[in-house]
Amino acid sequence: MTILPVIPTSPDQPDAVAIRRRPSMPPRHLADLDLAARKAAVTTLGEPAFRAKQLSTHYFGRLVRDIDEMTDLPAATRARLTGDLLPTLLTPVREMACDDGATRKTLWRLHDGALVESVLMGYPDRVTACVSSQAGCGMACPFCATGQQGLTRNLSVAEIVDQVVYLAGVAASGAVTGSPPRLSRVVFMGMGEPLANYPRVIEAVRRLTTPAPEGLGLSQRHITVSTVGLVPAMRRLTAEDLNVTLALSLHAPDDDLRDELVPVNQRWKVAEVLDAAFEYAARTGRRISIEYALIRDVNDQPWRADLLGKLLRGKLAHVNLIPLNPTPGSKWDASPKPVEREFVRRLREAGVSTTVRDTRGREIDGACGQLAAGELTEASAGGAAPDAEVAQ
Ligand code: SAH
């Protein structure tokens, strides 16, 4: 693992734990607005409307996030626009890399002291950003580190978009060795439950997929929204004119176990949640991705593979098995490889396409469900050198 140059904590904010305040939504940023609203905003600030496009071209087209680097703008204009349209939303606390530089995690401090993380993953043919949609998460899945924190607050549209624009800039700088320089995919698999922050996540998706300079110009098909299964929001998503990939975190094919692993199942049962997912697939023609973290002796029994196969047989669905990434202090562990192989075999035998997800970012706690910034800062409060605990 490489710890990248650490961004020092500013002297007036000596310790992230000490600055924990009441969470509040951030100031407005141009990424919160569509182009028409940006034009209205710049004219209200006494600047000509064309400045909106200029700013947008810098931000979305050239991935420049700092107004001081927009040197074709007069200094007075920059001073006038910065606070209202380009406030700093994300302050990097630390960045870490592993997998030979192909995976990097950034821990961000938001304007109110809340902490979130994003992960950039490079592959030979693509670069993917894994972003957070909330600070913390209210879904309380017991195997997920973020689930143990509870919800701090929703992220704003711009706080979501700015993570992606930053990571696209990192990719464009050529920092992800062995990968193309263009960030092409976004997965809402960082902290938070995206469908619990529905309007902002949808707006962020629109911003990310609108062509530059209004937006980032990514393909809708290359965006994945992952959910625990909030059925009304899934139905709402089905009615949107969006072609994003929907991932459903199922983790158990039976209600008894899913009630425990994904507590929201107590409200919306397996049958109902699968129905909503199949409807999404039927409406969009897009295969849904069923996420299933394999947990030793908990959900990895052959009969559960068979039951899952029965539920998904003939449906437009793909199973993505995730070897459990044990969270600190957890009683659970990943399934042994032979058990995992048997689980895959049974699903495939049932005619269900199945893959096992790679285990990117484990060394830097950047893997699925490991984005628990709160724990990192709590550890640093113990007096260790700021990064020592992360390096373990
Ligand atoms: N709230 C959304 C997105 C969160 S994380 C959701 O639940 O879908 C993305 C995926 O990582 C989810 O499938 C989540 O269940 C899974 N995950 C969480 N903790 C994990 C862990 N410790 N090991 C493996 N996968 C985990």
Distance between the termini: 10 Å
N to C succession of SSEs = EHHHEEEEEEHEHEHEHHEHEHEHH
Percent strand equals 15-25%
The portion of residues assigned to helices is: 25-40%
Shape: elongated
- Tell me the quaternary state: single chain
Contiguous helical run count: 12
β-strand number: 13
Poorly predicted ranges (pLDDT <50, ≥5 residues)?
6-18, 375-392
Whole-number mean pLDDT: 89
As laid out across the biggest beta sheet, the strand order is 1-2-3-4-5-8-9-10-11-12-13
User: Sheet bearing the most strands, described?
Assistant: 11 strands, mixed
Radius of gyration: 21 Å
Counting helices, strands and paired strands, the structural category is alpha/beta
The set of bound ligands, ions and cofactors reads: S-adenosyl-L-homocysteine
